[in-house]
Design goal:
Length: 115
């Protein structure tokens, strides 16, 4: 919560969140969606087994802090965080994602959609 002072008047409340730039969905084996997370403009989402914004504690193929998704001026970028198994086809570094693209992080299949 923030308190903003303008002209001697205090305003109490939270700031209006910015627009979401992406929807990231976890896909099950039957292609149904299990979990969905939204990524706001200018934000970063960390994926991992132990720590991060989205954790998968039972995935033994995922590193503790495995990868991050971030908005780079309208482009959604995934970056490997020195994980043991990489991302998808051994991504080591950054790769721009396209809407509808699927990404394998550990044993988790994620689908990225523009919002």
């Amino acid at each position: 919560m923030r308190v903003l002072l303008t002209g001697g008047t205090g305003h109490i409340g939270s700031l209006t969140p910015g627009p979401d730039v992406a929807l990231v969905a976890q896909l099950r084996g039957d292609r149904s969606v299990r979990d969905v997370h939204y990524l706001a403009a200018g934000r970063t989402m960390v994926l991992g087994r132990d720590t991060g914004d989205w954790t998968f504690p039972y995935d033994k193929t995922m590193s503790g802090r495995h990868a991050e998704l971030h908005d780079d001026d309208g482009a959604l970028v995934i970056r490997d965080l020195a994980s043991r198994n990489g991302i998808a086809v051994a991504v080591r570094g950054e790769r721009q994602l396209k809407p509808g693209q699927r990404v394998l992080v550990g044993d988790q299949v994620l689908r990225v959609e523009s919002v």
